[in-house]
Amino acid sequence: MQVNRASRRVESVVAAKVLVVTPGKLGDSLISMVIPANLARAGFDVTVRGDCAHDLASWLPDVQTGPRLSTQEYDGIADGFDFCLIDSQAPGLQSGGADLRPALSRRAVFFSLAHHDPSLDGRFDFKALPAEKSALFRDRIPRKGLIRDKAKTGLTMVDHTVEFCRRELLLEEAHPDIGLVSAQPSEREEKNRPIVFSPTSGKARKNWRAGRFVLLARQLQDIGHKCIFAVAPSEAAEWRERLDGQFALAPTPTIAALAKLLSDARALVCNDSGAGHLASALGTPVVAVIPRRDADYTWRPGWGTVKLVSPLLPMRALSGLWPYFVSVRQVRHSLEPFLNTSTPMSE
Fold it and tell me: Are residues 91 and 160 in the same domain?
């Protein structure tokens, strides 16, 4: 009898269709993928809507994906699923002065990593759950959609999202893995793996000095390391001119192409950027140059091996000058454990 109950419960979970709508930015999207990955591992039939996840569709075998929802699609999106979890900052929700979230909050649950509107909490109408699935989902309606718990220090946002899965979605065995699997595993020998440099980010104020990325790459190339740069397609022309043939600029027209490059890399050197989160999720070591002197920086890449490099001096009063106070020597010192080298260097 006990076996029959368990069997019926598994069948019920597998038949339950869940939608997760992720935020638009690469780093935030990857962190949010902790939610659908753990739902899928628990047996739910999960669909993720968001451009970043959809671009990585071949890397995410455990979930179905689709592009970001248009503003028009939101109105009827809950009709096709038993349960919907939507990031409250997802693209298309607030368009042309209209906010679709209050009306949607009766039929979908809203969450957000750090910029959640608490007025969206507690609005879900339990009658919106399919009768045959009510018992499965009624206790998984989050009381609070804000994922980050500032009372818990020292955690990454990945850690916070795992905690959210356990606390609010009753996924007791939740863990950080988002299920990224390369369709074409790398066969490249360790010694031939390149060091990838990602010298830009979504905000110029978070970027280390471009010339220091190039200088570090030149020093590493001089002792035999292969160095490759990667930037967004919109930045390629500028960086092709800046590099002037010194280093290859990898073609990364899609996130999937960037994922392939990073999965083959020995390490990534980057700013506080989506590329750092992606490399981290793929298990590639990351050295990230950040403006903050905070070893427990919450938004640091939350998977794998990550080393943060910060200004030598506190720079809060002179935030625009912070890149001048991170030396090439500092970054190289943090990178060396991944390179099996300790060749002396000069600046």
Answer: yes
Domain check: are 147 and 260 in the same one? no
18 and 138 belong to one structural domain: yes
State the first-to-last Cα distance of the chain, in angstroms, to the nearest integer: 73
Judge if 232 and 316 occupy the same domain.
yes
Instruction: Kindly state whether residue 311 falls inside one of the protein's structural domains.
Output: yes
CATH of the domain at 127: 3.40.50
Average pLDDT, the chain: 90
On whether both 144 and 210 belong to a single domain, the answer is: no
Same domain, 223 and 164: no
CA distance 113 to 195: 31
Instruction: Assign residue 325 the CATH number of its domain.
Output: 3.40.50.2000
Q: Which residues share a beta bridge with 268?
A: 196, 286
Beta strand ranges found along the chain (DSSP E): 17-21, 45-49, 64-66, 83-87, 94-95, 98-99, 109-111, 195-198, 227-229, 248-249, 267-271, 286-289, 306-309
User: What is the tally of structural domains in the chain?
Assistant: 2
Residue count (the chain): 347
Contacts of 96 (CB under 8 A, 6+ apart): 71
Stated pTM of the model:
0.92
Per-residue pLDDT at 4: 38
109 and 86 in contact (C-beta within 8 Å)? yes
Nearest to 227 by CA among 343, 306, 303, 339: 339
Distance, CA of 337 to CA of 285 (rounded, Å)? 10
State the Cα–Cα distance between residues 320 and 298, nearest whole angstrom.
21
CA distance 260 to 279: 10
pLDDT tens for each residue of 15-53:
799 999 999 999 999 999 999 999 999 999 999 999 999
